[in-house]
Amino acid sequence: MKTPLLQFTDKGIYCEKAKVYLDPWKPVDKAIISHGHADHSRYGHKHYITHHRNVPIISHRLGEINVAGKQWGEPFLINNVKFSLHPAGHIIGSSQIRVEHKGEVWVFTGDYKTENDGISTPYEPIKCHTFITECTFGLPAFTWTPQDVVLADINNWWAENRAEGKTSILFGYSLGKAQRLLKYLDTDIGEIYTHGAIENMTEVLRPLVDFPKTTLITRDTKKDQLLGNIVLAPPSAHGSTWIRKMVPYVTASASGWMTFRGARRRRAVDKGFVLSDHCDWSGLLSSIKETGAEKIICTHGYTDIFSRYLRERGYDARTEATQYGEEETEVALASKSTATV
User: Fold this and answer.
1) Does the keyword Iron-sulfur apply (predicted)?
2) Assuming Cys at both sites, which of 21, 68, 85, 201 could form a disulfide with 12, CB separation 3.0 to 4.6 Å?
């Protein structure tokens, strides 16, 4: 029986012919990394290959590593297997990984979204025979409102809170979501303050994107300075002593999970904004169609439901287990921060 070009192993997605792993979750000799989130770029590999925009991100998060950066579409050979990286649109520097050998083409998406957020390189559909797709939001209930509408709602919410003399605290992952929010916050309303985890990552990305001015919250920051302004914080800060000292405040979370009211209740936030760095249902389906692939492998998310739907529509679709899912190890990031009030 022919060995598949890519195999799912206990260490990660493995290309045996090239002896290289894609986003492995256990230490390996050589890893091609799709993007900088902690579930996809882990510590301990001997050699990393990734897009050059992701190099400063994973170097910041992982420390001193042996890493090589590639351009979009730049082919590189490993043991006669041809690899290239293509925009995934998920966050800054996020890539799909194209793998080709003897005319057979596979594409591993990592995480991706089809809406252009204005800071990440927009998603690019790649023709292939086998497409490995996430399906984090692989249910028809997930249908995203256009970004500009959601961001206008966020700015209106902030303005209303300012008028009431309250601090607005907006939660988003420190890599990706926080910068997407920051880019479009209306500084005519007030000032933008940040938790240390977000401030540190934003400073890494400032050479790549023109972000508004931010002020890091420190032990010297007074509560009165925050009133009427907005604070960007990672989800792990919610309920901490760090946030309790900001009373009076109003909280909100920006996430695809805010589609469901129950998620907002569980996260104990006052407001939920539906804004995701992943595809919605229609984005997943249109992406798959554009690849022309007949074989679809579904990972992390609503895998069983989504793959069954694809099979009903004639695709050769199956699921594979991975250790992807949590975009950030936010607790670890927060522990590195000196941000306290």
Assistant:
1) no
2) 21
